[in-house]
Structure formats: C-alpha cells, structure tokens
Specification:
The structure holds two protein chains of two kinds. By secondary structure, chain A is mainly alpha-helical. Chain A contains four helices and two strands. The relative contact order of chain B is 0.18. The chains are: A mainly alpha, B mainly alpha.
C-alpha cells in the first residue's frame, strides 16, 4: 500500500525537477516523443477529415466502382482501418525501442536520488 | 402478433441472460474479496495486465450503441452507418498517441487527478468532476434507453410499464455489481462480455459471408438490390441538404475527439501497473474494436440483404433490431437468445463501468478533495463512493425510463460531443502546454460543457422535429443535431483565452515535476502489493 501512486505535490524535496527537465537526457526523451506523436497525430487527423469531407461532399467520386460492387468509398473506409492498425503498430515499435529505454534510465536515476535523500535525512 | 418473427422465444432469451448474470455475479463476488482500500475499489489494485485491461476497454467501448446502433444504421442507411464505426475507431489514435500513457503516469484514480496536478486543486477538481458526471449521465441515458428498446424486441414487452420494470431491473443489477465488485468486479464483467460479444459477432459474420460465397462484392450487391436507395455510397442519412452535411461534419469531429475525453475510458488506464501496460491495453483495445467494427460492416449489410430495411424498421425496437433479427434469420431462436443476452449484458456492463467512474469522481474529487479538503477518515471515501453508486443507479433508472425510445447511437454521439468539448481541451493543454493556467482550465471545462449543453437544448434533438424529445414544442434555434463543430472549438479557444489573460503563473516547479513524471513514469510505476 505504501507505494500506491503518490499523493500529488508531496514528493520528497530531494529532486529538483526543473533541473531534471533541463537535463540533456530528458530533453532528448521529450524531443523523441513529441517529434513522433505530433506529426503522426496531425497526419492521421488530416487523412480522417479528408475522408469525411469526401464522404460528405463528393458522393459521385465515392461511388466510382473499382471491382464488382466495391467502390472507392468502401475502399477508402477500409483504408481508415488499415491506417489505424498500421499507426498503432508503428507507435508501439517506436515507443518500445526509443522512448522506454531513456525513460527507464531517467527513472532509475531519480529513484537513486530519492533513496540517497531518504538515507541522509 | 408475430412472436416467431420478431421476438424468438422470450423464456429462452431470459434463461440465457439469467445464466450470464449468475455466472458474472459469482465472479464479481469472488473478485471482490480483497477490496479494501480506495486503490482496490477504484483501480482494482492496479493488478490487471495490458491484454486484460485492453479487453475490458473494448468491453466498455463496444456499447449497445456500437453493436445494435451501428449494425442497424448500416442495414438501413448503408454507407452512412459505416462512418460511425470509422470515427469511433480512428479516435483511439488520439488516446494512444497523446493521452493514455501520460495520463497513467500523472494520475491516481480520476481524470481530475491529472488536470489538478499543477493547477489549483479545488476549482479544477470541481470543474473536472462536473464534466465527468455530465458525460457519464448522457452515456448512461443512452444505455438505459437502449435497454428499453431491446426488451420490447426480445421479451415481447410492448407496453411502457413493462419496459420500465425491466429498466429498473437493469439498474438494480448494475448497482449490485458495482457495490459488491468495485473496479475489479466491473472489469471482469467487461472482459467476459467483450469476449462473448466479439465471438458472437464473429460467428454471425462468418455465417453471413458463407451465405454470400465469402465474397464481399456479392454481399454488397445483395444489400444494394434489397434496398430502394443505394446503400453503397454515402449520403442516405446525411447527404440530403447542406445542413445535414454540416451536421455530419460536426458528428465526425465529436466522434474522433470524444473518445480520449471519455472519463470511463480514461479511468481504465489506472487499473494497470505501468505506462507500458497502459500502452499494451490501448493496442489490444484498438485491435479488438477495429476487428469488431469490420464485423459490424458485414452484419449491417447482411441484415440489409437478408431482412431488408422495411422489415427492420417495422419491428419493435426499429433500427436497433437489425442485429437481433439477423441472428433469428440465421440461427433461429437459440442464436437470437444468445445474441440478445449478449446485447443485454453489454448494456449492463457499460452501465456498471459508467457508474463506478461517476461514483469515483464524486467521492474522490468532490467529497474527499473539495468538501473534506483531504481530511477523510480511512474508508470514508469508499463509503461515499458506494452511497453515490446507489444514488446514480436510482437517477439513471428514472432518466432511462424517461428516455426510453430515443435513438441510442445518437445519444452516445452527444456524450462524445460533451467529452470532446469539456474534457479534451484541458487534458491536452495540461499535458503539453506549460503555460496553461487554472483560469484556462476552469473556463475551458465549464465553457465547453455549457456551450455543448445549451446547443443541445436548442437543437432539433430536444424540440421541433418528429423524433425530438418534445415533438410538440419548438424552440430549436440551433439547426444541427450534434453541437461538436461549435462547442469543441469553443472549448479549445476558452482554454487559450483563460490562460493568456491570467496574470499569475502557476507553480513552475510542479509543472516541471508533472512533465518529468508524465514522460518517465517516475513515482507511478509500482503496483500495490497484496
């Protein structure tokens, strides 16, 4: 029970978070994270709204037959499923390979500092 | 009376559903034996794995609106129904990329924990609890309204008194689940229900495809031939006028931005021990939900082809009856009984998930933090949460009886609009904008919520149309059914305005702490030991 999440704002004062935030490792983590999630988020939102606008305003284009009874609209709709699954997989690979190792390293460092702080006091 | 074509065998339906309730109640009792602390009650002791929690998220998310509503919408309106499922699915990328792990790392039990982390506790918590309760209320209303319609179809109960009794039974069962089981019991109910729902839909999908030679093109052709309008191209439901097209854009915006602001989904991220497990949960949820929506595409067109929209609309329960009717057509009364019981279990489970979220928000944010200012006796918070569960149960029974007969996919879309307008702006600003202030948060949450509610009140949903709640009055000044296209930008704008007009800066040290914690998971990585 003792280490169930923390009560907010009562962490030991041994860690200067502003300094951690400014450290090269943390800045690298933040850059890695944001330079992935922001562009990808913008890209899938643009693709989604392009699709929605086509569905709302380009009925003729969407009903163009491709093969059999399958038309452009059905294919683009299924394309939204494919892109969602692809982005999910891509993100997980990226997070496991790039974000997690740096985060674990910083976390280990911070826990070490907290233990040292508790030992001193 | 045509019981053999519309309701199957009511006794069989009730028996299968009764078996589900009995099995899940036993599991809930067993799971709840070591519910002691607030972390046990609200967050299941953070003991679930990513795949378990992902399945439970799918269980929470695949509500009766997803199953009955989308299948029915595709069967009757064709392509326009498909658009719902796409919005519901793509929305998960917002949660995965921008919200899930960062929320998991900075919070404890509720959405307000994250939002108030570096801002002033009381005003922000109160605002976040208010928006949480509002979203839960709309969502609950949709589920309860769905229960009434489903019952009329399955048990052959057509009079309102009988339906009201069944809604009350659903409410009482839900109160028992949540009171006894807490988050752990509720999560197990979600997992079982998600499994049954997805397997049931998979069986029916294979069946429908088999009848059409496993050829999608043949199925689409059969659905198109069975319908008067072309169901393969967009526009049947939303393409009529410039206004309905705008309404469609508004809906699309609310769907894609609403998910990441749904409090009962956000709360699920706290039932796992680490951010990595939170990520795995979302990935599992995305795959399960995505595959399920692909099933609904086949089922919807299958229902259109095999039953036809005229028969669906004429059945008790209307649009929502497409999936049960398809089950009857394929597998006779037994498959109908199973699918009906699964649909009913879906409503029960989603209602339980919403109730525990609303109760946690009230007890943790309003009672413990705002009223008692943190000075709560041990177990006091859980006791208040339990009382809240009963109150919410009673309110939702009454509201559900009132909303009986409303379109459920549509009521859920309103809940999404409120979540996207009132919650998402503050969540994103808190996580990514260091300058964001208390004033910005409070303005955005109350402003987004208020705008959405006022627009709904003056929309055709409430008055002025044949399907309105008050068809005999007309005060619909706002022309769109879904308020998202106005209220979501208003929520974001108010957050920005409130922040840039704040004179005082919020504590920069805590902002730094929040940023470090959110990205590294420091301080939140360990599970409770038992």
């Amino acid at each position: 029970m003792s280490n169930d999440a923390y009560p907010a704002k009562s962490s030991p004062p041994v860690i200067d978070y502003a300094e951690v935030e400014d450290s090269p490792r943390f800045r690298e983590l933040k850059r890695e994270h944001r330079s992935f999630v922001f562009p990808v988020a913008i890209a899938f939102l643009v693709w989604y709204f392009a699709y929605v606008l086509l569905a709302a305003y380009a009925h003729d284009f969407m009903s163009t037959p491709v093969f059999g009874n399958v038309n452009v609209g059905i294919l683009l709709g299924l394309g939204q499923f494919v892109s969602t699954f692809a982005i999910t997989t891509w993100y997980v690979h990226r997070a496991n390979a790039r974000f997690d190792p740096i985060a674990a390293e910083i976390r280990a460092d911070l826990e070490g500092r907290e233990h040292a702080g508790e030992a001193r006091s | 009376m045509t019981p053999e074509t519309s309701t199957g065998d009511p006794i069989l339906n009730i028996s299968i559903f009764g078996a589900f309730v009995a099995v899940t109640l036993i599991i809930v009792f067993r799971a709840s034996r070591n519910n002691k602390t607030a972390a046990d009650y609200y967050a299941a002791g953070r003991s679930f794995t990513g795949p378990q929690n992902g399945t439970a998220i799918a269980g929470d998310y695949l509500s009766a609106a997803s199953f009955l509503g989308i299948v029915g919408a595709i069967a009757v309106n064709g392509y326009d129904g498909f658009l719902y499922s796409i919005g519901f699915l793509v929305a998960w990328l917002v949660a995965l990329l921008l919200v899930a792990e960062l929320m998991r790392n900075t919070g404890k039990f509720t959405m307000a924990d994250v939002l108030s982390f570096r801002l002033k506790q009381r005003p922000v918590r109160l605002a976040a609890a208010t928006t949480t309760l509002a979203v839960c209320f709309f969502y609950l209303l949709a589920q309860m309204a769905g229960a009434g319609g489903l019952v009329s179809l399955l048990l052959g109960i057509d009079d309102r008194v009988g339906q009201s009794v069944v809604i009350a039974v659903v409410g009482v069962l839900m109160i028992i689940y949540v009171l006894v089981g807490g988050m752990k019991g509720t999560t197990w109910v979600q997992i079982i229900k998600a499994f049954l729902l997805i397997v049931g839909a998979a069986v029916m999908t294979v069946w429908v495809l088999a009848l059409h030679g496993f050829n999608l093109s043949t199925l689409l052709g059969a659905a198109d031939a069975a319908s008067a309008a072309s169901v393969l191209e967009p526009g049947n439901q939303y393409g009529l006028t410039a206004l309905t097209r705008l309404d469609f854009l508004s809906l699309a915006l609310a769907l894609v931005l609403g998910t990441a602001g749904l409090p009962h989904v956000l709360m699920r991220f706290y039932t796992v021990p680490t951010a990595r497990e939170a990520r795995r949960s979302v990935v599992w949820a995305i795959w399960l939900i995505g595959v399920f929506y692909l099933f609904t595409l086949v089922l919807g067109y299958g229902a259109g082809a095999l039953i036809g929209s005229d028969r669906i609309l004429a059945a008790p329960g209307g649009v929502n009856s497409a999936a049960p009717l398809l089950a009857l057509e394929l597998g006779g009364p037994i498959l109908l009984g199973i699918i009906a019981a699964v649909a009913f279990a879906t409503i029960l489970a989603v209602v339980a998930g919403l109730t525990i979220t609303a109760a946690a928000s009230f007890a943790h944010d309003v009672y413990a933090s705002v009223i008692k200012k943190g000075a709560v006796p041990p177990n006091g918070e859980v006791r208040v949460a339990r009382i809240t569960v009963v109150v919410i149960g009673v309110v939702s029974i009454i509201a559900g009886i009132g909303a009986n007969g409303q379109n459920i996919a549509f009521l859920v879309a309103l809940a999404f609009a409120v979540a996207a307008s009132a919650n998402l702006p503050t969540i994103l600003y808190s996580l990514f904008w260091k300058r964001f202030t208390t004033r910005g948060a409070v303005l955005s949450m109350y402003g987004g919520l208020g705008t959405a509610l006022v627009l709904i009140l003056f929309s055709p949903v409430v008055s002025g149309g044949e399907t309105s709640m008050f068809p005999n009055a007309d005060f619909s000044i706002f022309p769109l059914n879904n308020p998202g296209i106005v209220s979501i930008p208003v929520g974001f704008l108010l957050g920005w305005v409130g922040t840039v007009t704040s004179r005082t800066l919020e504590a920069p040290a805590i902002a730094a702490e929040m940023e470090v914690r959110s990205l590294t998971g420091h301080g939140a990585e360990k599970a409770v030991e038992h």
